[in-house]
Structure formats: structure tokens, C-alpha cells
Amino acid sequence: MPKYRRDAFDSRSLRPTGHPRGCCDPEGKAELQWIFKQRLAERGLKHQVRANKSGCLDQCEHGPNLVVYPEGVWYGRVTAADVDEIIDSHIIGGHPVERLVLPDSCINAPSCEHKRPKPGKPDQS
Predict the structure, then answer these.
(1) Measured between alpha carbons, how far is 102 from 75 in angstroms, rounded to an integer?
(2) End-to-end CA distance of the chain
(3) pTM for the whole thing?
(4) Which of 22, 26, 31, 83 is the most buried (most CB within 10 A)?
(5) Distance CA 68, CA 89 (A)
(6) Are 108 and 61 in contact (CB under 8 A)?
(7) What CA dihedral angle connects 92, 4, 30 and 97, to 10 degrees?
(8) From first to last of its 125 residues, what are the pLDDT tens digits of the chain?
């Protein structure tokens, strides 16, 4: 079997309801990964693109998150309704879905426009 052309990792953090950082998969259903796998298979891409689960990607305020490699494109606030567009535009067409792409200034940054300050700590923006 040939190697995969792309990998898509979907974030899976489980936190209690109301946690200040949010939760990418509050019910633990892995819905995005399941839908992504199903849609890839429907397009004949099952053995070309791998839909992976990941642990926490530490971008909780932007979640649910999806990262597509080898490009390293980070998507935030991804819903089931976005999966077809990501596959068609990015995976097949090579054009990331700009409205969902997280800005570099938000990824692994101590603060950004989406992050709430940690309790007891001032905002670092």
C-alpha cells in the first residue's frame, strides 16, 4: 500500500462542561473524525488521506480543531458542515479554507484574540 499523501488530525480534548478553555469533543463521540473518514471514503481517498484522532492540540479556545499535514494548516471552530468544504477545497483542490484557517499569531501563542486570560492571571495581549 502506498504511503498517505496527507494526514488530518482532529483534536480530542475532554473537559467538564463550562471549563474556561472549552472542549473540542465534549461528548467524546469523535464525530468529526468519523465524518471525515466517511467523506474521504466516498471520494475514493481512503488510502490516500488518513483521518487521525489526536490528543489535545492545546488550541482549545479555537476548537474543535483540525490540522492537515504535510502543509501544517490549522483549522479552528470546525463543524460537521465544514468537512466537505475542507476535503473538496484543501485535500482535493490544494486550497485551504481561509475562513477556518487559524492565524499563525494564534497558534501556540500565550494570548490571542480568542483566548481568555487564565483565572488569576492578567491578559498578556
Answers:
(1) 5
(2) 48
(3) 0.80
(4) 83
(5) 12
(6) no
(7) -30
(8) 567 788 788 776 666 677 766 666 666 566 888 899 999 999 999 889 988 887 777 777 777 889 999 999 999 889 999 999 999 999 999 999 999 999 988 888 877 776 665 555 444 44
Residue 91 is placed in which grid cell?
Answer: 485535500
Q: In the numeric block, which cell numbers belong to residue 73?
A: 494548516
Helix segments in 15-63, DSSP class H: 31-42
List the one residue out of 31, 22, 27, 25 whose CA is nearest residue 12: 25
The answer to whether the beta carbons of residues 62 and 114 sit under 8 Å apart is yes
- Say whether 91 sits in a helix, a strand or coil: helix
Cβ atoms < 10 Å from Cβ of 22: 17
